[in-house]
Automatic annotation (TrEMBL):
<dbReference type="InterPro" id="IPR036291">
    <property type="entry name" value="NAD(P)-bd_dom_sf"/>
</dbReference>
<dbReference type="InterPro" id="IPR020904">
    <property type="entry name" value="Sc_DH/Rdtase_CS"/>
</dbReference>
<dbReference type="Pfam" id="PF13561">
    <property type="entry name" value="adh_short_C2"/>
</dbReference>
<keyword id="KW-0560">Oxidoreductase</keyword>
<protein>
    <submittedName>
        <fullName>Tropinone reductase 2-like protein</fullName>
    </submittedName>
</protein>
<dbReference type="GO" id="GO:0016491">
    <property type="term" value="F:oxidoreductase activity"/>
</dbReference>
<dbReference type="InterPro" id="IPR002347">
    <property type="entry name" value="SDR_fam"/>
</dbReference>
């Protein structure tokens, strides 16, 4: 999906070395954006950056930044590098996140909860805070990658669901506060999408097909389908949309 008005925009996509973030970065590059990609795996990051440059409408260089976004100094350095390279920021996609398949009675539940809140909620909050002065200047936007689990109960991922529900509320608050300053803030809430994040969460491979078989669209989602929605929300086609939580779940909420 292509959007003419995205040409030459500066886009920062966190967690873009795989999955939804990778698909999103590549799609922005196809739309003529100047893209900054981030991740912890340097090899995968190099591969994504190369792909972005190959498909870039204007053959823009793709800026790479490797680091752990749970560290405050890394977030600061990421914004500084983006501005140093491109001089501005138009679109921030808070996609980086982590997950854990666990029960509240598990011995390591609280440790996992604290990690998820730091990565899935605190990091996007701090990065948005650092980016907002530049987004106000550019009349830009933020898209947070949340989850359908923020609005429905899925067994054994309570900590993850809590972190994403907090991210949705952050979306609404930022939209309300910064809309008058010209900044739109929205989230996308994907359903079951097979990504490296879910593999790291110890979820059985079969669970995606099992969970999605009874929903109206009876298959897991694709990263590219979520990327299309993110680019739409970043474009002028959604100029009247802010504070929205855009559910893309194959209808799973209808049968929850």
């Amino acid at each position: 999906m292509l959007f003419d008005d995205l040409k030459h925009k500066v886009v920062l996509v966190t967690g873009s070395s795989a999955g939804i973030g990778k698909a999103t970065a590549i799609l922005f590059a196809k739309n003529g954006c100047k893209v900054v990609v981030t991740g912890r795996n340097q090899q995968r990051l190099n591969e994504v950056a190369l792909k972005c440059e190959e498909v870039s409408l204007f053959k823009y260089k793709c800026v790479k930044f490797a680091g752990d976004l749970s560290e405050d100094e890394t977030l600061k350095a990421l914004i500084e590098k983006t501005i140093a390279e491109y001089g501005k920021l138009d679109i921030l996609v808070n996609n980086a996140g982590d997950g854990k398949y666990s029960c509240i009675l598990d011995d390591d539940f609280i440790e996992g909860y604290e990690l998820l809140m730091r990565v899935n909620t605190r990091a996007p909050l701090l990065l948005s805070r650092m980016a907002l002065p530049y987004l106000i200047e550019s009349k830009g936007c933020i898209i947070n990658v949340s989850s359908v689990s923020a609005i429905r109960v899925i067994p054994s991922i309570m900590a993850y669901s809590m972190s994403k529900a907090a991210l949705d509320m952050m979306t609404k608050h930022l939209a309300a506060e910064f809309g008058p300053k010209g900044v739109r803030v929205n989230s996308v809430n994907p359903g079951y999408v097979k990504t490296l994040l879910h593999q790291r969460s110890n979820l059985p491979e079969s669970i995606y097909d099992e969970l999605s078989k009874n929903q109206p669209i009876s298959r897991p989602g694709e990263s590219e389908e979520i990327a299309n929605a993110i680019c739409f929300l970043a474009s002028s086609k959604s100029a009247y949309t802010t504070g929205a939580c855009f559910v893309i779940d194959g209808g799973s909420c209808l049968v929850a």
